[in-house]
Amino acid sequence: MLWQPAHPSIRRITDPEKLTDVIAVEEHVWDEDFSALGHFLADALRNAPDQMSVYVAYADERPVSAAWVYFRDNSPFASLWGGSTLMDYRKQGLYTALLAVRAQEARARQVKYLVVDASPMSRPILEKFGFEVIADSYPCHWKRKPEA
């Protein structure tokens, strides 16, 4: 399934202005402000477009799932990010389709390894396609103390 042609609803985002679709998905799924991510992704698309690819799945022209992949020069690794899907569109294969399009691009670029920090919801899907757990991560949020 990972090597079949891309799902027709998936589009690659190359215009930083269209990243609003990615941010809309992330904010809806996680109920948080992702504007900083939007600026980060836009900077990456403008300054190093060959090192990042962003994909969005659409339903009736509405962004419903989003993911991206980072490539580093001369590295055998690429890292997968995002993979968020709106609740009403889960269990329809969109996460898998976004995984597939990123894996296909990595293969075309001769990347040897894909790395992902997966949520408990994504982990079984990734394991189904051969991903193995090699470590656990624990997110920490730093809150800067106000300067005196």
Write the layout of secondary structure elements.
Blueprint: E1 10-13, H1 19-30, H2 35-47, E2 52-59, E3 62-71, E4 77-85, H3 94-108, E5 113-116, H4 123-128
Parallel strand pairs: 4-5
Antiparallel strand pairs: 1-2, 2-3, 3-4
Helix pairs in contact: 1-2
List the main descriptive attributes of the protein structure presented here.
148 residues
Description:
This protein is α+β, with helices and mostly antiparallel strands. It has a single domain, classed as Gcn5-related N-acetyltransferase (GNAT) (Aminopeptidase, 3-Layer(aba) Sandwich). Helices cover 31% and strands 24% of the residues. It is built from 4 helices and 5 strands. A 5-stranded mixed β-sheet has the order 1-2-3-4-5, sandwiched between helices. Helix 1 (19-30) packs antiparallel against helix 2 (35-47). It is globular and about 55 Å long. The relative contact order is 0.16. The mean pLDDT is 92.
